[in-house]
Design goal:
Blueprint: E1 2-3, E2 9-10, E3 12-18, H1 24-36, E4 40-46, H2 55-62, E5 85-88, E6 103-105, H3 116-136
Parallel strand pairs: 3-4, 3-5, 5-6
Antiparallel strand pairs: 1-2
């Protein structure tokens, strides 16, 4: 959170984007909420949202004590405003432009069809990347 000269606290806004908004971007949003606390407004969206959260994502985030079932798969059309950081994950040219001070593309494989160990590895990679991103904002 950034404190201005007037003592006003500004929350950092972060958006995570993938295609379906059911796995990677949802887990990234969850980790940003977990590790960013009140200093971060974390959101996620998809270029072609599936409308559901992958049950594997719900299960593997539950291992971290986070209830991903409370999230909803959203379209980029539902997102508004500017962001301090926008992170894309695998949507490539299909990702529409979203105003942001900083952009990153994380080349992460979609864990949808991975076995449990592979899924956990992607989840853990996302957590590490989110921590580094938040520390650098």
């Amino acid at each position: 959170m950034l404190r201005t000269g007037l003592g006003v606290l500004l929350m950092k806004r972060v958006l995570f984007v993938c295609i379906e908004n059911s796995n990677r971007s949802q887990m990234a949003e969850a980790f940003a909420r977990m590790h960013g606390g009140d200093a971060v407004e974390a959101m996620s969206a998809g270029s072609a949202p599936s409308g559901r959260i992958n049950p594997k994502a719900v299960r593997f985030m539950a291992e971290r004590g986070y209830d991903l079932a409370t999230h909803a798969s959203k379209s980029l059309d539902d997102i508004d405003g500017e962001f301090d950081a926008v992170v894309t994950m695998g949507c490539g040219d299909a990702c529409p432009w979203v105003p942001a001070k900083r952009r990153e593309d994380w080349a992460l494989q979609d864990p949808r069809d991975m076995d449990d160990a592979g899924y956990r590895a992607v989840r853990d990679d996302i957590e590490s990347r989110v921590r580094a991103l938040l520390a650098s904002l």
